[in-house]
Amino acid sequence: MDTDAQTTKTGTNNSATVVFSGDTEATGRIARLADGATVLIHDCSFPDGVDVSGHPTPSQLASVLNGVTVGRVYLTHLFPRTEGNHETIRERIQQEYDGEVRFAHDGLSVDITVDTSDSADNATTEH
For the whole model, what pTM was predicted? Predict the structure, then answer.
């Protein structure tokens, strides 16, 4: 079954785009929506080898992000089985996805700066 969280994408050429998907499998629809976004926030609840419906593994997420351009991906909804495995999870995703991958945590605040010049990329700063 291909289920997605409800998604909305708004903004203009001079604004940052944040795509959030929670409690859902990694799907091509979400990847297409996130293509070109400043930030993608996506569920990655379990390491590879754990098959739970509705929650992608790193390999499943990597597969749909292959060829997608996102400024930064934040992984969320991390179950206890991911503790101690963050580097392995990040490395697995980056085998197929070239972008930056970080792990979200409770209380994380991210400022997104949009630079409209042709020579600079959008930037994010964590607090």
Answer: 0.80
